Amino acid sequence: MRIIPIASGKGGVGKSLLAANLSIALAQAGKDVVLVDLDLGASNLHLTLGFPAPKNGIGTFLSGARNDFEELIHRTDYPNLRFIAGDAEIPGLANLNAKQKAGLARRLLSLEADYLILDLGAGSGSNILDFFLLSGRGIVITAPTLTATLNAYLFLKNVVFRLMWDSFKPRSRARAILDGLRKDGGSLQRAYVPEILGRVAEADPVSRAAFDIRMSRFAPRLVMNMLEDPKDADKAQKIRRSCKEYLGMDLEHMGILYRDDLQDIALGSRIPIIRYKPQSILSQAIYRIADKLISTEDYTDDFLDPEYLDDSYGAANSEAEIDFESKIGYVEELLQSGVLTVGDLIETVRMQQFELTQLRKENQLVKLKLTRALAQGYKV
Ligand SMILES: Nc1ncnc2c1ncn2[C@@H]1O[C@H](COP(=O)(O)OP(=O)(O)OP(=O)(O)O)[C@@H](O)[C@H]1O
Ligand SMILES: [Mg+2]
Hints:
With about 375 residues, this protein is an alpha/beta fold. The protein has two domains: about 1-325, 3-Layer(aba) Sandwich (Rossmann fold); about 340-380. The protein is built from 16 helices and eight strands. It has helices at about 15-30, 45-50, 60, 100-110, 125-130, 145-165, 175-185, 185-190, 195-205, 205-215, 235-245, 260-270, 275, 280-295, 305-335, 340-375; strands at about 1-5, 35-40, 75, 80-85, 115-120, 140, 220-225, 250-260. It has an eight-stranded mixed sheet, sandwiched between helices. α11 (about 235-245) links the parallel β7 (about 220-225) and β8. The N and C termini lie far apart (about 45 Å).
């Protein structure tokens, strides 16, 4: 079974959209898929999936109200796709204890399927990190904005720390080094991973070797969502470079997804975009990601080859160009068929210009605040 946890760091960047639609795409390709809502405390995947409000889910199981895990596995309208809901009915389960977490992970890992897709919550909480680490090949989804890319990177940094913690034995010298950093409040976020690993190698080579083995099987995948412009695809390279330089970790690019207003309508109608408009650029991009997963199923070690990873970025960049061309072509078709008038386009351009002016004003205000703060002696 291939386990694909989907995480993001920042919330609202498309984890649930990808989890639901990718699961459907894989199921349509004949794969046996189980989709799980692990966004405990804020479960809403059933809405994206267009699944009626589930009576029982992980929450029911964890609260002990139901012991039969099998009962939680719902059939869906899609052949080959089963769904395990979260805890929408029983809030307050965001914090699992270690025993609950281990029990849940054991149940999930013993499911029989080709793919297990896990929709995780936002942030870098320990549950999220642990579920992400159930696989060495999870997906981090992000958007081209500065906060989203930064959060994706910080999420991965936290994953690396968790991986260290897991690899180092209790009471080992390596653990003591990590403990020291933890006590020094906040320094974990600022810590430079290669420097820490250097210290671990000197003080405790056995722990370092254990970490290196786990890290060598770890190459998460990236999806860049909410693109507006093909140039945004470049932001993925920035995340990759930071991960390589500061975390000693490489990432594969699984592809890009443009922002598409059709998704709002699809969500409003509780129909996954891939069913609502399978031919849309967004749906086709999700099918493309599913195809990449399926076509590399037999080459599980490909990511060990740096050239393979390099190529994945080249491919994503050209997909961004191709999809952009299709978007423009689509507008032209709408114009020709009369669905969209030149007047509509002029109106859109006007609206966008208005938004740009507003943004510019906001930007000037923030700059002014920044200049004042610096003048008052605040440090960057
Ligand atoms: N490519 C896209 N085009 C248009 N809308 C999108 C796109 N991707 C996501 N959205 C919309 O953005 C919102 C957030 O997406 P989604 O719920 O999938 O994110 P999430 O990461 O799961 O959020 P959360 O952290 O709250 O669980 C939703 O309204 C979704 O419909
Ligand atoms: Mg979500």
